[in-house]
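Quick one, tokens below:
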């Protein structure tokens, strides 16, 4: 047991995701100027099949039953922790849109700055700059932003699990600050 405590403390210091967040993480998300950056819920696989199109969900990698249940649980946790969401912004990919809709925490709108650049890593800098601009333009509105691993990693340096929520804010200089992480349902 004595050996496990230092290991646990080390992992927490690194920001390892937890099945339930400390109250401080939820308090941070409720604070003005913070937002929830969320990797879409569980969608088995990596990337998308060759020849996929955004207009046809049948050609994409999609949420499975566990992913749909995970998205609902994430939304329930957000509501249970008293986070008032003004808007849910989402990538145009079906797995992100479905996650955003299933959260049930606010009106959902597509946001091109959240679209995946997995297939074109050369777009990372432009996409990240566009996302920072969008964050700065939220004008005090609390947002949940549903996107993809590559987008979150480019913006924050964090490699999130499916369905992992990252609490962030953007300072006036455009620097992203991490306030905590929540993994509602581990794979």
């Amino acid at each position: 047991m004595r050996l496990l405590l230092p290991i646990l403390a080390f992992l927490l210091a690194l920001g390892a995701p937890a099945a339930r967040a400390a109250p401080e993480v939820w308090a941070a998300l409720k604070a003005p100027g913070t937002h929830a950056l969320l990797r879409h819920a569980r969608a088995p696989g990596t990337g998308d099949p060759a020849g996929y199109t955004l207009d046809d969900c049948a050609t994409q990698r999609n949420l499975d039953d566990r992913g749909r249940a995970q998205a609902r649980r994430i939304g329930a946790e957000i509501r249970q922790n008293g986070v008032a969401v003004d808007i849910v912004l989402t990538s145009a990919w079906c797995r992100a849109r479905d996650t955003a809709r299933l959260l049930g925490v606010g009106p959902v709108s597509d946001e091109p700055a959240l679209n995946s650049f997995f297939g074109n890593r050369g777009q990372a800098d432009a996409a990240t700059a566009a996302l920072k601009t969008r964050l700065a333009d939220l004008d005090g509105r609390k947002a949940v932003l549903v996107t993809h691993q590559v987008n979150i990693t480019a913006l924050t340096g964090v490699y999130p699990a499916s369905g992992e929520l990252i609490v962030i804010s953007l300072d006036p200089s455009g620097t992203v600050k991490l306030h905590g992480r929540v993994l509602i349902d581990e794979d």
